[in-house]
Amino acid sequence: MAKIKCVGLLTSGGDAPGMNAAVRAVTRAAIYNSLEVKGIYRGYRGLITGEILPFKTNNVSNIVQQGGTILKTARCLEFHEPEGRKTAYKTLQKEGIDALVVIGGDGSLSGARIFAQEYNIPIVGVPGTIDNDLNGTDTTIGYDTALNTIMQAVDKIRDTASSHERLFFIEVMGRDAGFLALNGAIASGAEAAIIPEIWTEVDQLEELIKTGFRKSKNSSIVLVAESEITGGAMGMAERVKKEYPQYDVRVTILGHIQRGGSPTASDRILASRMGAAAIDALMEDQRNVMIGIQDDEIVYVPFSKAIKKEKTINRDLLNTLRILSI
Ligand code: ADP
Question: Quick one: which of 119, 160, 180, 249 is 20 to 30 A from 310 by CA?
Fold first, then answer.
């Protein structure tokens, strides 16, 4: 295999705190290994429009602590089409980029997988998403920061919930995955989490009302994972108004505050390790793998496995939440 000389780097999809730390790590590890690095702006869109700049070590100075991504990110519809990907490949050739590092979530890695199947270019993915919904890695970049943001927000809402004796449904992100809702609920001492993973197994609202709510408390906080399956916090509140009108219900949707802010130490360290590992992987002739972390060890996860929607929640956590909310 021809030796890699120049690595292209992009961030794509939803931004996540820690993406910048990963950009810094990929850039510096590449330069350390005598590779050229080019920053591709606005995700796959930059590959199509040719918005690309050579990166030196100082392009990534002073960003380890910043949320968002200095490379910007975008959702690019053209990349879903073969024509768009053809243009992207031509850009890579023109720029002399012979390997790609893609930092993003499940959609971005799905795009990377298709691109790598069509064109002969080694691609390594780095899981950057607050949702923690990529398979084959214990955690993803941004998840810990988002969890901390949720915890702090819920702490504040609890003051109102308990002063007014209300039932609060707080909707958190997660894109059909309940990791943020479940762990956010445990961290903030919430009474329950309503998550899509067990939707068909139990009526979580009924269980909450019957077993827990207001037995010994004057307020309740329930974290609801955003999802078409659960109907989100609004869906829950509507149901309570109809079925249990005796409760004073309120809804808070945390929204984009969950994606912002300075990354936690855990996310910075994870992003730094994963970014450096992406370059190691390319130097070892790996291709079409996502960098994962399992039991604190870096692993390579084939794209096909990483994007399979089968990451399971830890059911012991559900039980712990139930026990602690009596
Ligand atoms: P995330 O990476 O956060 O899951 P998206 O799902 O929006 O975010 O995906 C980001 C981008 O990745 C899309 O805008 C598109 O350019 C590309 N992408 C996603 N899925 C595919 C796909 N199946 N084929 C080609 N490109 C895709």
Answer: 119
